[in-house]
UniProtKB/TrEMBL annotation:
Compartmental location: Cell inner membrane
Official protein name in the record: TRAP transporter small permease subunit
Primary location class: membrane
Topology within the bilayer: Multi-pass membrane protein
Organism of origin: Thermus tengchongensis
TM regions (residue ranges): 21-41, 53-70, 91-114, 134-151
């Protein structure tokens, strides 16, 4: 179990690092959005590249931030019921949900999007709009984001199993497993 807990910590560190970068994207997309609005309405200037960069960053926030949200237990759940259950029952629900829903869905999206993203990369796909950006980087972000989500799901699975087997303890407030 020690090797798996070490793997879980490595995945958590990766997720934390990516999450910290994604937080900066929120500021950048807000600044870019404001800049686009000022340029469009103040100076009658618009750029497809700026508009596409704006939605690329917005997409990256969600695609790359999903694993971070999962790690910090910030994802949506039905707390009305879940919060009233024992920690052991909550751990079992997390395990079942991860194995039956999260991991198959994430792996399925990776599988279904990989050829699409790879084809875009190999063809160096560009935006059809004048002055637009390359499309392949944002298409590669789809399988990457779901790969990060699957990895974090694996980490959460390891931590819940370690909790149930007595290798780790779980705090009551945050539902995070600690040693």
């Amino acid at each position: 179990m020690g090797v798996l807990i070490t793997l879980s910590r490595w995945i958590d560190a990766l997720t934390e690092g990516v999450g910290r970068l994604v937080v900066w994207l929120v500021l950048l997309v807000a600044l870019l959005s404001a800049g686009n609005a000022i340029m469009r309405y103040g100076f009658s200037y618009s750029s497809n590249a700026y508009l596409e960069a704006q939605w690329y960053m917005f997409s990256l926030i969600f695609l790359l931030g999903g694993a971070y949200a999962l790690k910090h237990n910030a994802h949506v759940r039905i707390d009305l019921v879940f919060g009233r259950l024992s920690q052991r029952t909550q751990a079992w629900i997390d395990i079942i949900g991860t194995v039956l829903f999260l991991l198959p869905m994430a792996i399925g999206v990776i599988y279904l999007s990989w050829d699409w993203a790879k084809g875009s990369f190999l063809g160096r796909e560009m935006s059809p709009d004048v002055g637009g950006l390359p499309r392949w980087p944002i298409k590669l972000a789809l399988p990457l984001g779901f790969a990060l989500l699957a990895l974090q799901g694996l980490s959460e699975l390891i931590k819940r199993i370690a909790y149930l087997t007595g290798h780790l303890q779980m705090t009551a407030e945050e539902q995070e497993v600690v040693e």
